[in-house]
Amino acid sequence: MDAMAAFSALFDESFEAMKRLAYLLGADDPENIAQEAFVRLHDRWHTLYDDSKALPYLRAMVVNLSRSRLRHLRVVRRTPPDVMLDELSAESHALARQEHKRIRDALGKLSRRQREVLVLRYWLDLDQAAIAETLGVAVGTVKATTSHAMTNLRKHLEEW
């Protein structure tokens, strides 16, 4: 498979997942973050020595771009607006919105690293080694951070 075909296949398979990853990490413009990550990957595609490294590299870029965006948002405004969900019915909308708000509020009370580890683990279903590679930390750090994050998340959800 040539480079363009490999990149196109990765885009088709991963764009929505990268967009949701950015959203779950708290970005207010997840589609732009996913697009920017793919643009940067495309610009550097020729430097990849192994196409199998493209997805972890892409995830790391989405995490880093999300961090940068969140730092910017803290400076510009206090709290990002909630993303409006598609409405199914008034009842399902109310229940889903309440549950999403509860979970996002609880995730928002965690440290940045704890939130990132939980989203990568439980939303992307990455193993500890992949999380460590994405975040640039040791596997032991991922294990400890996950444990602390789950304890804190349970505490925050019980308070709600």
What does this structure look like?
By secondary structure, this protein is mostly helical. It has 2 domains: 1-81, no CATH class; 86-160, Arc Repressor Mutant, subunit A, CATH 1.10.10.10. The protein has helices at 3-24, 30-44, 54-76, 90-109, 112-123, 128-135, 139-159. Helix 1 packs parallel to helix 3 (54-76), helix 2 packs across helix 3 and helix 5 (112-123) packs across helix 7. The N and C termini lie far apart (51 Å). The relative contact order is 0.11. The model has no long low-confidence stretch (mean pLDDT 86).
Looking at this protein, list some descriptive labels.
about 160 residues, 2 domains, mainly alpha, Arc Repressor Mutant, subunit A
Short recap of the structure:
The protein has helices spanning 3-24, 30-44, 54-76, 90-109, 112-123, 128-135, 139-159. The chain has 160 residues and is mostly helical. The protein has two domains: 1-81, no CATH class; 86-160, Orthogonal Bundle (Arc Repressor Mutant, subunit A).
